[in-house]
Amino acid sequence: MKFKDQFRFVRQNTKKNKSRLFMTVLATAIAVAFLMVLASVAFGLHKSIIADLMQDRMVTEINVHGKNDPETGYKPIIDEDIAYFETIENVKAITRRQHLRQSPEFIIDNYSVNANTMVAYFPEEMKAGFELSEGKMPEKDNEIIVGYSFSQELIKQMDEDSMDRENLYDEDGKIKEEYTYKGDILGKTVEMQVYKLVNNEPETKKIPLTVVGIAKKPSREWMMDSNVYISEAVLHEVETFTGTRGGMPEVFEGDEEYAKLGERNYDEVYIYASNVEAVKEISKQLEDKNYYAWSVVSEMKEINMIFNILKAGVIFIGTIALIIASIGIFNTMTMAVTERAPDIGIMKAIGANPKTIKNIFLLESSYIGLLGAFFGAIVAYGISFLVNLFLPMILAGVFEEEAPEGFVLTHIPLSLTAISVGICLIVTIFSGWRPAQRATKVDVLKAMRREI
Question: Where are the transmembrane segments (predicted)?
Answer without folding.
Answer: 21-45, 305-330, 367-391, 411-433
